[in-house]
Amino acid sequence: MVLDVLIDGETHRLELARHGGGWLCCLNGRESALDASLVRPNVLSLLMEGAVYEVKREITPVGLHFWIGGEKYSAEVYDPRSFRTRRHAAAASDGVQKLVALMPGKVVRVLVPEKSQVQAGQGVLVVEAMKMQNELKSPKQGVVKRILAAEGAAVNAGDVLAIVE
Amino acid sequence: VVTPMFKKILIANRGEIAVRVIRACRELGIASVAVYSEVDRAALHVRKADEAYCIGPASARDSYLNVERILDAAQRSGCDAVHPGYGFLSENAQFAQACQDAGLRFIGPTPAAMKMMGSKTRARQAMERVGVSCVPGSTHSLEFAEAARVAAQVGYPIMLKAAAGGGGKGMRWVGSAEELRSSFDAARSESERAFGDNEIYIEKFIKNPRHIEMQVLADEHGHIVYLGERECSLQRRHQKVLEESPSPIVDAELRQRMGETAVRVAVAGGYTNAGTVEFLVDQNRNFYFLEMNTRLQVEHPLTELITGLDLVHLQIRIAAGEELPFAQSDAHIRGHAMECRIYAEDPDNNFFPSPGKITLLIEPSGPGIRTDSGMYEGWTVPVDYDPLLAKLIAYGSDRRQTIMRLERALGEFFVGGIKSNVSLFRKVLRDPDFMTGEIDTGFLDRLLSKPDAEPQEKEYAHIAAIAAGLFAAMDQNSQPRAIAENAGPWRKKSLPVSRNGTSSWKQAARLDALR
Fold first, then answer.
1. Contact by Cβ (8 Å): A48, B462
2. What secondary structure letter does DSSP report for B295?
3. A36–B383: do the CB atoms touch at under 8 Å?
4. Can you list the alpha helix ranges (DSSP code H) found in B162-278?
């Protein structure tokens, strides 16, 4: 299989094929043989040229991350043949943007009404969790299309609270 | 006369400390009763206890601070004692009294001793009477005019503190006479709001002191011992973050002087059970009484590791009327211990709390490692309480080995799905000042305000890329559809519907085994 993998914003072309009990991998044109074992959900033990790596996968409402030896890498995986994923990737940088609750909590204030103009970085809602308040800011300049949570509402991590277009 | 031990103990707490006490109960053959709020049904302490009762909604005021509901649960379940843990009702003399009135032993000091130590000004007065030196300042509550006089007398800068205070609330640093008025009013109203009490007193400000505390243990037959100090200077916003024992600056002679002073403090307060006397220590190793904590401390495992004692066992035995099973001359310290408080907070975002679901949890183990934890994989950390998840404690033959072990264990530790402060400890343990023991209460602020060294080139981006692809490729094999297709003979059976919550798969396997 062929994949485009974005690690910390940098694209890598990755080809993977099963080989014997392990895998053949070609990363950015460089080939190597490796052995991989999913030792428990979200934990991959990787053997490459004699070296052992343990990779932890973390899936949160804000994205996909991999941890190796205390270092954290953000990641996105695309099938280069799929038009849909590319279009999706492009849409993420402009167009409609969602403001997502990063943790469960309570909406304590809505700072701007629907239909109002906002600047990039302007606060839209304030969410309180564990007695601390966190302002959710607009990622872009635009119009607040929808406010999806009222003041006082309890929200879960990953809930969409507002849409900016 | 041998007093019969308790049969059943209610633990009026949650999180790692409730689990800690439940474990001690089980070791002693005592049944344990947990209490929980509506959001804590799935919490670890509920899972570990023998019995559990819901005592109200999420808000601590309505549950873990709800004396009536807690006592009701204790009586309904037939408990004969209550362990308060730390925080919540642990230092509330009225709760201790209410337990006593309800015929339950409160595992801690008497209400009178708690009341005296609970008021910082009354404690200071008592210490003055028995000749224990406090930080210079006032020994009673002040009005503004008097405060200005005392402040001028001890010399600026000074600290304004709430008599009922704790955790840095109602506390103000005042650099000069001009600032006194506004700080005084602010401290007063903050104290009023936080503790319902507006008593304010003054202490001379000691720049970058160390915060060192002494563990004491007293039975109800007049025996009292001290069990060595704990160095608690690493604090952020007056909250301890990392503690160790022994302190790098305390030698046998100073330990004995501090220990004997702590014993004097406890005797003056008519103290029984486990308690901690906190001292400020200045740069010349002069120590001043700060306050006495009338409960088990978060960091009590340090003392357990270097003395070989179990403080919770001893607390329970003392409350049951037993005598201390050893004398001061039998208490020795050996080796070194260090504790990291693992919080659900984001060190990269001003330590903002980070509740949520723990999607992956790998806890360290191996030589010299102890974890006291209240979390598990799959559990959702609620938003309603203190974000302490667990304590990682390392023990070694000396300070150096302990630091190396702790660093190794931190490397094994992984909490996924939420943010934790694990990375902060790596930074602390590698700091040259920390390694040589040059620490004081300003250490952590200084460390955190240092600009990060050159952002290091990450080493493993290529491994991350390969792993991302492998996870994507290998996960296809774990799709539910694939499992069903490969399940073979199981597919033909109609799986029994589970009624007791165990999975149908497990039941099918059991059916197979029975055949």
1. no
2. S
3. no
4. 177-195, 252-268
> What digits encode the pLDDT tens for the residues A35-45?
999 999 999 99
pLDDT tens per residue across span A120-144: 878 898 888 776 777 888 877 889 9
Round to whole Å and give the CA distance between B376 and B360. Answer: 9
Q: Does A79 touch chain B (CB under 8 A)?
A: no
In this prediction, the residues of chain B whose per-residue pLDDT falls under 50 are 1-2, 477-515
Residue B454, H or E segment = none
Please name the member of A12, A36, A71 whose beta carbon is closest to the beta carbon of B460.
A71
State the smallest CA–CA distance between residue B432 and chain A in angstroms: 20
Interface test with A, best of B361, B466, B477 (most A CBs within 10 A): B466
Say how far residue A90 (Cα) sits from the centre of its chain. 14
Tokens of B495: 């799986």
Tell me how far apart the alpha carbons of residues B92 and B145 are, in angstroms, rounded to a whole number: 32
Cβ atoms of residues B504 and B484 within 8 Å: no
Cβ distance of A7 and B465 shorter than 8 Å: yes
- Which residue from B382, B384, B467 is facing A44, i.e. has the nearest CB? B467
Query: Which residues 6+ apart lie within 8 Å of B7 measured at CB?
Result: B30, B31, B78, B80
List, for residues B9-67, the tens digit of each pLDDT value: 999 999 999 999 999 999 999 999 999 999 999 999 999 999 999 999 999 999 999 99
Which one, of B127, B2, B113, B12, lies nearest residue B60 by Cα?
B12
User: In terms of DSSP H, where are the helices of A4-156?
Assistant: 83-93
Q: In this structure, what DSSP letter does residue B134 have?
A: B
For B337, half-sphere exposure in the C-beta direction (CA atoms, 13 angstrom radius) is 24
Cross-strand partners of A4: A13, A78
A residues 129-158 closer than 8 Å to B (CB)? 129-132, 134, 157
Q: What is the pLDDT of residues A49-77, one digit of tens each?
A: 999 999 999 988 778 999 998 899 999 99
Average pLDDT of chain A to the nearest whole number: 86
CB B307 within 8 A of CB B227: yes
pLDDT for B508 equals: 46
Residue type, B296: L
CA R_g for chain B: 25
Residue to mutate among B61, B470, B477, with most A CBs inside 10 A, is B470
ipTM over 0.85: no
Shortest CA gap A68–chain B (Å): 7
Residue A29 pLDDT > 90, yes or no? yes
Of A89, A36, A33, A54, residue with least CA distance to B475: A36
3-state secondary structure of B373: strand
**Contact by Cβ (8 Å): B365, B319:** no
Burial class for B197, CB neighbours closer than 10 Å (0-12, 13-18, 19+): middle
Q: What is B259-282 written as a DSSP string?
A: HHHHHHHHHHTT--EEEEEEEEE-
Q: Which residue has 């043989």 as its token pair? A: A33
* Nearest CB to B470; choose among A7, A42, A44: A44
Q: Taking CB atoms and an 8 Å limit, are B416 and A56 in contact across chains? A: yes
User: Quick one: pLDDT at residue B348?
Assistant: 87
